[in-house]
Structures are given as C-alpha cells and as structure tokens.
Amino acid sequence: MTSPIELSQSSEIAESQQVNAAVGSLPPFWNHKPELWFAIIEAKFDLANVTAEKTKYNHTLGALPPEIASEVADIITALKPEEPQPYSKLRRGILARLTLTESQKVQQLLSGLELGSRKPSQLYRQMITLVGEGSNKSVNEQVLRELFMQQMPQIIKPVLISLGDINLGKLAEVADKILEAVPTTAVSTITTRQDDANSPLSILVKKMDELIRLQQELTSDYSRRRHENRKYNNYKRTRSASRSITKGDQNVNVCWYHVKFGDKARKCHGLDCQFSKNADSRQELG
What residue stretches are annotated with the DUF7041 domain (predicted)? Predict the structure, then answer.
C-alpha cells in the first residue's frame, strides 16, 4: 500500500514533468542582452502557466552558464529554502550586474560600433537598442546622427547629407537602398582606398560633392532673384497707384463738362468732379 508521503512525492514528480514539458528548454543566456533574455523566458513561463517563484527560479538557475552564475554566486548561496521570491531576487541581481549603465552605453556607442557587413538599418537598430527611444533616449539626436554618419561608406555620404534633417530611421532605410544599388566591390574599394584621390570612385565622390554644392548655389540664387523680383513688382505697383489719377481714372467721377471739353471747360458740377482735383495734383507734381 502506498503511503501519503509517497503519493505526495509522486504527485510533485508528475507536476514537475508536466512543467518541464510545457516550458521546454530555455534558450541560452544572452550575456549582452539579459533584459531581452528574461523577457523571452517569462513568456515561456506564462504560456506554461508557471507562476510559482520557486519553479521559475529552478528553471532559470539551470539555464545560467557558469560565468553568469559566478557573477551572482553570493545571491544564489544566500537564498534560503523559505525565501518567498527567489526568482525575483535572482533576476534583479543579474540585471543589476550585467546591464550597462547609461554612461557605459554612450561609451560603447562612441567606441564599439562599426557597420561591418551589416545593413545601415541594422546598425541604426543596434544604436537605438543601446540608447533607447523617444523621451528615454540617453544621447542627443544630433550626436546619434553624427555617429551614424561616421560609419557610412564614403561613397554614399554626400547623398545622405543632401537629404537634410530627415528622420534617422528613414535615413538608414535610404542608405540600405543605395548600398543595394552599389556593387559591394565599389564600396569596399572606396572604403579601403580613401587615400587614392585619382581612383574612379574618388573622382565620382568629388563629382557628387560638386553637384550638391551647385544645387545649393542654384537654390540660393533662385531665392535671391525671387526676392528682387518681388521688390521690383512692389515698386511698380506703388508707381502705378501714384499715376492712376492722371491716366487710368480720368473718366471716373468727372462731370459732363470736363468729359466734353477737358481743361477748357468753363463750368463744373462741383464737389463730385475729380477733374479739378487731378489738375491740382498735376500742378503740384509739376
């Protein structure tokens, strides 16, 4: 006959097997992205309906590589069996010791990032991962843009600069498309031989720079001419208005006598007739 203790142990073993089957094997620990790793394993716990701190702690501890376990060895050894939140304590300890501080993120951004064989958009996403987005961003947008541009191949920089201050994410997508259209050998050649001023690709870059400069000059000249034309048109309108009395509006509010006889008229209908006023104006101007 099976004792109650044996039944309890058998039930715990069966439950543990069910949890193991539901959770499956946890992914290897990600040293450089511990927050993301914890997000993934907690999703697995949720799918398996695992809520017990002790169960999550046991699975997490079993997935830690030796170097990470050594990093939090003091926390692991200090936990007592009756500890109510072993998993939460272990998680907090790992994140506190492995997550980069804001200054460390900036330092890594300044010194450790390279485009390599990646797409510009992949480099951009890594930068955003390090510094955050929106109000949580720890690096000024302009600094981030300059760091991004430093990693771009020389052959596409003039084109990217000519796009102005468009969103950095959009700029990275444009850089992707340009590099897709440029042969890989061309990019590597201009990257490794920037000192060869007479190479065809160096000449091409200079021509692109010249075209951008010319475009800027034409835009500036066009704006200047528009401004001058606007001033001239305003001047013409002012002169036209001042001379309208003697030319365009002679027959407006002029009495019959002055319409018929002009300045030889001997009679006038009075105040409403503008002819005499126009004559006075002409005399003053003369």
Answer: 26-110
Dig out the tokens for 127 from the structure.
């930068």
Q: In 182-199, where does DSSP find H-type helix?
A: 184-192
Lowest mean pLDDT among 99-113, 238-252, 267-281: 238-252
Q: Is 262 left (phi over 0), alpha (psi -120 to 50) or beta?
A: left
* Residue 201: C-alpha distances to residues 208, 224, 275 (Å): 10, 35, 76
pLDDT in tens, 226-249: 777 776 666 555 555 445 444 444
**Whole-number Å distance between alpha carbons of 206 and 203:** 5
3-state class of 221 per DSSP? Answer: helix
CA torsion sign for 45, 50, 56, 60 is negative
Residue with tokens 């160096």: 202
The angle that helices 120-131 and 102-111 make with each other, rounded to 10 degrees, is 160
Which of 141, 181, 178 lies closest to 163 in space, CA to CA?
A: 178
pLDDT of residue 117: 82
**What's the rounded Cα separation, in Å, for the pair 121 and 178?**
12
163, 171 in Cβ contact below 8 A? Answer: yes
| Dihedral angle sign, alpha carbons of residues 114, 118, 124, 129 | negative
Q: Look up residue 136 and give its two tokens.
A: 């949580």
Rounded CA separation 61/160 (Å): 48
Domains of the chain by residue range: 15-98, 102-192, 195-242, 244-286
Cα separation of 276 and 282, whole Å? 10
State pTM to two decimals.
0.41
Place 121 in a pLDDT band, splitting at 50, 70 and 90: very high
